[in-house]
Predict the 3D structure of the following.
Amino acid sequence: MHESLNKSVNVFLADDHTLMRQGLASLIEKDVSMKVIGQAENGKEAVEKCLLLRPDIILMDISMPELNGIEATRQIIHAIPDAKVIALSMHIDKRYVTGMLSAGAKGYMLKHCAATELGTAIEAVLRGKVYLSPEITGVVVEDIVIHAQQSNEHKSVSLTAKAREVLQLLAEGNSGREIAEKLNLSIHTIDSHKKNIMDKLQMFSVAELTKYAVREGLTGLE
């Protein structure tokens, strides 16, 4: 596999489930043309390490703590426009597929298909193609083509990237002080973000914000 690519393919794994990362690493190590050069268990760590390591392929779980896979992908692609991200998910979910592709991912693979599809997905993406698991294609590709532009107009994207980070952390049960520490911001700044989020979404309780974050895929359903 990958003989015509003429170089070893460096792969980065981002998934909050240790067993999933181990399984993917084992699959990759069976192919002498690929090697795992780094791993992360949350989106924030994934962004930091990928900017440093510059892998050829990033396998990105969508539902992760700290920073979800969609936001992590968006940040990586912003910093490294030619980065090649393949999303990993347990769900056939139009919101996640559209969100990941809109963020710049080049592929979307269902986790239970990884054993049979991983090599094909990586090779397709390295050759400049978009890869979708066959189960995904039949269910959502038409919706993606028709509605991808419309999804960009949804009110969730009116929030800044930092506001989306704050919203995810709020939804995951972090206090304002804990969020301030995680993002290296002042508690005053976090309170300001929280107020702006509530004003924009017209939601005035953490419970409402949490339901919104889950509904929009900002934090996991898994």
